[in-house]
């Protein structure tokens, strides 16, 4: 049964009780009123008429011949005959009527006074009996009314007691009927909204409370779905942020407003020399007592608090067996408090940015400038000396020709170096490499390269040997760029090969590609440097003391070959020389 119906039934029961009391009271009062009217109309009226009859008889006793008294008696008797209500009253009225007729006859016959007085006495006696009869009936009616009133009082008292008990029960039960389910529902809601339980409300009723529970379960299900989605989104965002933080090459250290460490990423943990589990949750000052590097960072943080330093501090640490350079940045963390509508300080982020690559690049550029300065200074000095010898008139013609040849070689060396710098500047500017692809015979490329480096071969007494098959197909390449690559590889082979050795150049077709190889007899290259030598400004340790180039030739060569659809790589071991290979597509 629904709560509405229960409340309605309780109120209806109270109304029925009130209606029952009212109807019963009304019926009792109505019965008493009718009985009173009956007594008044029947018995009391008869008593009044009997009194009038006795009054008339009293007058006849005093004046037997008074006509008005006889008329009053006759009129009252007539009215009494019309108001007969009690058993035996009609016979008594008839007897009075007969006696009145006898008295009237005696009066008409002028009978002796004694006879008339006797008749009057009989009339008085019968009238008294009439009065007594009606008074007794009236008394009986009064007693019956009294008994009825007492019974009604008892019945009403019982009904009132029962109504009071039932009403009190309803007063006590009705709030319980309404409040108890609501309290139970409230307790179930508290249990359901507890994140530790999160169970749905039990549907034990099929009333309004049950409907509310069902509606709450639907809302709870939607909230749980939303919570699950939000939790998944938060977990995804947290995992994403953790992945970003964990994967940074920068060290991150987060210290809250209470000077407690709340975040340490792996890089910062490695730099501090302690695991993150031992740092998170600890006071920074406590950890700094046993950690010199953290003490240094906290000192820098304290200096950065009032004002940002012009130059962030830099630190050199050993990482993976090598020197690493880090620059410290201190950033305050501010959070907007919606309750106070103010921005509050909640901590500092100490960021250790890895600037090792920039430091190394700066060092490489410094080395490059020194190398370029040396490379430029040497040929320029040689050219300057040769020009002075040419100006000397004592120099004979043969010597002048030799000096002019030396100037030409040094000039070509300068042009080659300037060309490398120009190519590098174009690549760095994003201009790209302009190619003119065409069918190219590798034998022609070798002829151009041979003419260019012949003087260098003769100077070091090196022998150049080719192994080019006669049926080698033409390749799709840019003649100028490919010749430049071959010349660069030959120049490197000449630079690192000892005097009197041989340099081998071979080519063979491998499917849709032609592979060209340049083998020297140099000191070889360790495996860990095979990729590094193709980077710009790269230099490797050289125990033989051979002076390297600018560090741009192999980088540019790889760019030229890659842009033509080929590859350039090296195979080498220390003490076994080096073999540089590159491939170019066969002309279709």
Automatic annotation (TrEMBL):
Its EC number is 2.7.13.3. Gene3D superfamilies: 1.10.287.130, 6.10.340.10, Histidine kinase-like ATPase, C-terminal domain, PAS domain. The chain crosses the membrane at residues 156-174. GO terms for molecular function: ATP binding; phosphorelay response regulator activity; phosphorelay sensor kinase activity; protein kinase activator activity. Residues 237-282 form the PAS domain. It is a multi-pass membrane protein. Its main location: membrane. Residues 371-588 form the Histidine kinase domain. InterPro entries: BphY/WalK/GraS-like (IPR050351), HAMP_dom (IPR003660), HATPase_C_sf (IPR036890), HATPase_dom (IPR003594), His_kinase_dom (IPR005467), HisK_dim/P_dom (IPR003661), HisK_dim/P_sf (IPR036097), PAS (IPR000014). Keywords: ATP-binding, Kinase, Membrane, Nucleotide-binding, Phosphoprotein, Transferase, Transmembrane, Transmembrane helix, Two-component regulatory system. It is found in: Membrane. Pfam families: HATPase_c, HisKA, PAS. One of its GO terms (biological process) is regulation of DNA-templated transcription. One of its GO terms (cellular component) is membrane. It catalyses: ATP + protein L-histidine = ADP + protein N-phospho-L-histidine. Residues 176-228 form the HAMP domain. This is histidine kinase.
């Amino acid at each position: 049964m629904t709560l509405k119906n229960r409340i309605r039934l309780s109120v209806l029961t109270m109304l029925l009780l009130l209606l029952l009391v009212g109807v019963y009271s009304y019926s009792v009062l109505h019965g008493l009123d009718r009985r009173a009217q009956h007594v008044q109309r029947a018995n009391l009226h008869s008593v009044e008429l009997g009194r009038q009859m006795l009054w008339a008889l009293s007058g006849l006793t005093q004046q037997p011949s008074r006509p008005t008294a006889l008329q009053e008696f006759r009129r009252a008797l007539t009215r009494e005959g019309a108001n007969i209500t009690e058993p035996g009253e009609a016979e008594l009225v008839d007897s009075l009527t007969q006696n009145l007729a006898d008295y009237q006859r005696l009066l008409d016959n002028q009978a002796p006074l004694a006879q008339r007085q006797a008749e009057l006495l009989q009339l008085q006696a019968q009238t008294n009996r009439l009065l007594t009869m009606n008074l007794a009936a009236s008394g009986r009616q009064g007693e019956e009314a009294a008994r009825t009133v007492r019974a009604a009082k008892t019945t009403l008292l019982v009904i009132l007691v029962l109504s009071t008990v039932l009403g009190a029960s309803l007063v006590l039960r009705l709030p319980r009927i309404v409040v108890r389910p609501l309290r139970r529902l409230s307790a179930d809601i508290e249990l359901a909204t507890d994140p530790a339980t999160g169970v749905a409300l039990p549907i034990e009723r099929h009333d309004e409370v049950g409907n509310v529970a069902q509606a709450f379960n639907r809302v709870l299900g939607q909230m749980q779905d939303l919570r699950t989605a939000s939790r998944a989104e938060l977990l995804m965002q947290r995992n994403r942020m953790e992945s970003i933080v964990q994967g940074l090459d920068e060290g991150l250290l987060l210290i809250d407003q209470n000077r407690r460490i709340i975040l340490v990423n792996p890089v910062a943990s490695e730099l501090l020399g302690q695991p993150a589990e031992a740092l998170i949750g600890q006071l920074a000052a406590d950890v700094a007592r046993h950690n010199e590097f953290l003490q240094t960072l906290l000192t820098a943080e304290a200096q950065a608090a009032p004002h940002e330093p012009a130059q962030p501090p830099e630190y050199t640490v050993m990482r993976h067996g090598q020197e690493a350079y880090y620059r410290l940045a201190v950033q305050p963390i501010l959070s907007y408090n919606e309750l106070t509508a103010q921005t509050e300080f909640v901590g500092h982020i100490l960021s250790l940015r890895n600037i090792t690559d920039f430091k190394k690049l700066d060092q490489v550029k410094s080395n490059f400038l020194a190398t370029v300065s040396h490379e430029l200074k040497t040929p320029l000095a040689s050219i300057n000396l040769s020009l002075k010898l040419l100006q000397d008139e004592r120099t004979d013609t043969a010597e002048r020709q030799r000096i002019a040849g030396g100037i030409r070689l040094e000039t070509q060396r300068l042009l080659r170096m300037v060309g490398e710098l120009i190519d590098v500047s174009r690549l760095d500017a994003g201009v790209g490499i302009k190619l003119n692809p065409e069918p190219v015979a590798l034998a022609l490329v070798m002829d151009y390269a041979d003419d260019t480096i012949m003087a260098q071969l003769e100077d070091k007494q090196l022998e150049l040997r080719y192994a080019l098959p006669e049926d080698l197909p033409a390749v799709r390449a840019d003649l100028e760029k490919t010749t430049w690559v071959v010349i660069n590889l030959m120049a490197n082979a000449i630079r690192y090969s000892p005097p009197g050795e041989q340099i081998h150049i071979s080519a063979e077709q491998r499917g849709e590609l032609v592979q060209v190889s340049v083998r020297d007899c140099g000191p070889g290259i360790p495996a860990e440097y095979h990729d590094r030598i193709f980077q710009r400004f790269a230099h490797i340790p050289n125990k033989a003391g051979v002076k390297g180039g600018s560090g741009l030739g192999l980088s540019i060569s790889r760019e030229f070959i890659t842009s033509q659809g080929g590859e350039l790589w090296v195979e080498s071991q220390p003490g076994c020389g080096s073999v540089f290979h590159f491939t170019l597509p066969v002309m279709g």
